[in-house]
Design a protein that fits this description.
There is one protein chain. The protein is mainly β. It has a domain at 29-146. Helices cover 13% and strands 59% of the residues. It contains 2 helices and 12 strands. The strands form 3 sheets. The protein has a 6-stranded antiparallel β-sheet. Strand 4 and strand 5 (87-102) form a beta hairpin. The chain is rod-shaped, with a radius of gyration of 26 Å.
């Protein structure tokens, strides 16, 4: 019984230490990200190839970019049309997305980390693999949204005796929570009556 009580108190303490920041929340909806992707419209690529002593040029057009924000694994999708010499085909491209918060740059970042499709041709009715193309190479920079550090502020508070006290506030901890079709960033605020060291230039 003694050991059970000790285990119980340890568990309660750990849960208290793992309290979710909840002073304020930033929500980025899937629809918002897809509006940005829609403005990109399309991506084109052209290059020479050589396979089985056959030389030629391939060209692809990727469009209809979309992201699906999911709790287990967020995804990127698009459609690609490929021309390899006289041979043409279309394919749907699945991809993976990484979502993170960069405390140093104060940015919530959404990055396409992989979106590959097979480049191939057809020789005498036989499918010939040329290589795989990763469209993530066209999205080297993540889609970034400003974090909470810009909310750092101070204000004057009038005390009961008439004196003015300056209150300083700044965001501290951040925890990302990925839900169905939305990214939720929960932040904790810290308040103090003297300027924070991090605010000094």
């Amino acid at each position: 019984m003694k050991y059970l009580l000790i285990s119980f108190f340890i568990s309660v303490k750990l849960l208290a230490q793992q309290k979710t920041p909840n002073d304020f929340t930033v929500i980025i909806h899937e629809e918002t990200i897809n509006k940005i992707l829609k403005t990109i419209d399309s991506i084109n690529g052209t290059k020479d190839y050589e396979v089985m002593f056959i030389k030629g040029k391939y060209h692809y057009t990727a469009k209809n970019f979309k992201m699906k924000i999911r709790p287990d694994s967020s995804q990127f999708t698009c459609d690609v049309k490929v021309d390899v010499g006289p041979f043409t085909y279309r394919t749907s491209v699945p991809g993976h997305v990484k979502i993170s918060y960069d405390k140093i740059t104060n940015q919530i970042q959404i990055k396409v980390v992989r979106a590959t499709f097979e480049l191939y041709t057809n020789v005498l009715g036989k499918k010939i693999h040329i290589k795989d193309i990763d469209l993530a190479d066209n999205f080297k920079e993540p889609f970034s949204f400003e974090g909470p550090k810009s909310m750092t502020t101070d204000f004057d508070y009038t005390m009961p005796d008439g004196k003015i006290k300056k209150i300083y506030m700044q965001p501290t901890e951040c925890e990302l929570n990925i839900r169905w079709q939305e990214i939720i960033a929960n932040f904790e605020l810290e308040a103090c009556d003297v300027p924070f060291i991090t605010l000094k230039k």
